[in-house]
Backbone:
């Protein structure tokens, strides 16, 4: 599906650069071990900004829930309606959820609770890769 | 007069965590006046139908309703953001005839696509003694209500206008702008999956149905009831423009927007303004209308860790809201006569109601509760205002209704199966909500 391309900024560039290298990274705090997503300028837990680092994740997760989008505001995606938008709970910290279109899974046939693994898809406008998730073997 | 531009209310005005005890101004602030503009679907391009004109009218009605003259008003709390989701497109010509039919501020879009305190003061005749102004931090009358309650309680002002206006321009809701671009920046760079506004609530509701073994059809009685209540709200959009009854079958067969949220689970953006007049309990005794006392106000905005709140986040936030409200008001759930929580997607009204433990309803029991008598004539009225579902997207019907019910001025919408003594209203979503406890008595 032709997603819009994200335009990285100074704070988010390491995340998007890692996607282009096929790696899923999350911002983590070396002081309190808190993981956060999307990135912030400081650790939400201990408010430290100097201890934030980028930590590589396993790229595994579970489908937590989903909805089926029939009336999408984003022009580039309307041609693919209806489509799934799932929330993926990250293996390292299931409270952190990421969106997915679940490529390969038909609309409204989503196996909630199933294991998934990250892949990276190129977006048309700039070529920036973004994380997506598909069923794990 | 105030000096300098109006600022957003400081965080210190919000009661935003548990353990604060009973509100220090419990029962010492009262709502005494209500004013509404007419509603319309969209701005027609005229000065008379603009958000500015609507707001002037609502303010004048609120003052008249309370029996307060403009020069007696010394406080103004409002939301400067008036958009329903459509923004003035860069480069679109500004209608200077409309701008110049008012007393303009420095921004020509003031009164058309935004609303500053300065514009309001310039354009409502007689507002010559305003000494306190503040903007809400959250685009909602619920936020204005809590800030104004605290301001009057703290003595920052004595007669405070509480104001919310909406403009609705041509075009589809949230379409155009960034949604029409090939790229996204800012916070949008992590929201590339095309989820419409109701998606978050829909995905939480889907999770809820799996967790508790429920289904979307079980929402039908709530929506039918809310639509029915809305038709009894003469100030509302549907009562004024589209008095159509919605049946269970209509609801169940409606098209999906983001399944499991359908067309009727999404509210309709409209133009309308409302104003309330708050004053001290002492002054309220001598005013035209029966005072409705504020027992507590709260803000509940817990941190959400991922890109979207999950059901766990929502349930935890709603429970926190309920505890905060009851603690600060010095009451329990069993003291509540009726609830009027926000519904501007219908599905999260369920989460709000359970968070309040309204009528003892626990997590997972709300949809079963909806299958019973939730009408205004029964013992368990749910959303007697009809909310956004019943009257259009303004996020203020629930407050107006709560005040009117407790004043005995709700007309055909009056709750008759219970004695209206204590009401709770608030919004918006469970993870970012300001709420208020209203009472017929100060103690």
Residues:
């Amino acid at each position: 599906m032709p997603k819009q391309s994200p335009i990285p900024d100074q704070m988010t560039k390491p995340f998007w650069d890692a996607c282009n290298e096929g790696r899923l990274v999350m911002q983590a705090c070396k002081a309190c071990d808190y993981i956060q997503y999307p990135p912030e300028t400081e650790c939400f837990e201990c408010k430290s900004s100097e201890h934030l680092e980028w930590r590589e994740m396993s790229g595994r997760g579970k489908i937590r829930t989903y909805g089926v989008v029939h009336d999408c505001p984003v022009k580039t995606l309307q041609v693919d309606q209806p489509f799934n938008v799932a929330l993926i709970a990250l293996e390292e910290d299931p409270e952190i959820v990421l969106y997915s279109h679940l490529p390969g899974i038909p609309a409204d046939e989503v196996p909630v609770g199933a294991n998934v693994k990250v892949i990276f898809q190129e977006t048309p406008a700039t070529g920036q890769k973004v994380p997506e998730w598909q069923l794990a073997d | 007069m105030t000096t300098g531009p109006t600022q957003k209310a400081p965080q210190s005005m919000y009661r935003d965590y548990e353990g604060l005890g009973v509100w220090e101004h419990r029962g010492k602030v009262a709502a005494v006046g209500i004013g509404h503009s007419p509603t319309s679907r969209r701005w027609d391009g005229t000065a008379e139908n603009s958000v500015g004109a609507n707001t002037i009218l609502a303010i004048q009605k609120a003052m008249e309703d309370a029996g307060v003259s403009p020069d007696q008003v010394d406080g103004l709390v409002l939301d400067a953001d008036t958009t329903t989701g459509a923004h003035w497109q860069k480069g679109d010509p500004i209608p200077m005839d409309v701008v110049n039919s008012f007393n303009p501020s420095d921004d020509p879009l003031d009164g058309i696509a935004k609303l500053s305190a300065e514009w309001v003061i310039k354009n409502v005749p007689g507002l010559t003694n305003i000494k306190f102004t503040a903007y809400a931090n959250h685009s909602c009358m619920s936020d204005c209500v809590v800030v104004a309650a605290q301001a009057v309680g703290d003595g920052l002002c004595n007669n405070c206008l509480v104001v919310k206006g909406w403009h609705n321009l041509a075009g589809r809701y949230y379409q155009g702008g960034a949604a029409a671009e090939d790229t996204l920046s800012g916070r949008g760079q992590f929201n590339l999956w095309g989820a419409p506004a109701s998606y978050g609530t829909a995905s939480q509701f889907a999770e809820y149905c799996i967790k508790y073994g429920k289904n979307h059809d079980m929402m039908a009685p709530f929506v039918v009831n809310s639509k029915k209540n809305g038709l009894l709200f003469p100030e509302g959009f549907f009562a004024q423009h589209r008095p159509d009854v919605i049946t269970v079958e209509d609801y169940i067969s409606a098209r999906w927007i983001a399944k499991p949220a359908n067309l009727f689970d999404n509210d309709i953006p409209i133009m309308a303004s409302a104003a309330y007049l708050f004053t001290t309990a002492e002054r309220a005794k001598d005013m035209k209308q029966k005072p409705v006392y504020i027992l507590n106000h709260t803000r509940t905005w817990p941190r959400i860790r991922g890109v979207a709140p999950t059901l766990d986040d929502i349930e935890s936030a709603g429970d926190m809201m309920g505890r905060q409200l009851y603690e600060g008001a010095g009451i329990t759930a069993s003291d509540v006569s009726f609830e009027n929580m926000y519904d501007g997607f219908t599905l999260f009204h369920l989460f709000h109601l359970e968070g309040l433990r309204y009528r003892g309803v626990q997590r997972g029991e709300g949809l079963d509760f909806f299958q019973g008598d939730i009408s205004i004539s029964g013992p368990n009225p749910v959303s007697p205002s009809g909310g956004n579902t019943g009257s259009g997207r303004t996020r203020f019907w629930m407050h107006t209704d709560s005040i009117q019910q407790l004043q005995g001025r709700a007309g055909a919408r009056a709750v008759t199966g219970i004695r209206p003594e204590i009401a709770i209203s608030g919004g918006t979503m469970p993870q970012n909500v300001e709420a208020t406890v209203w009472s017929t008595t100060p103690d």
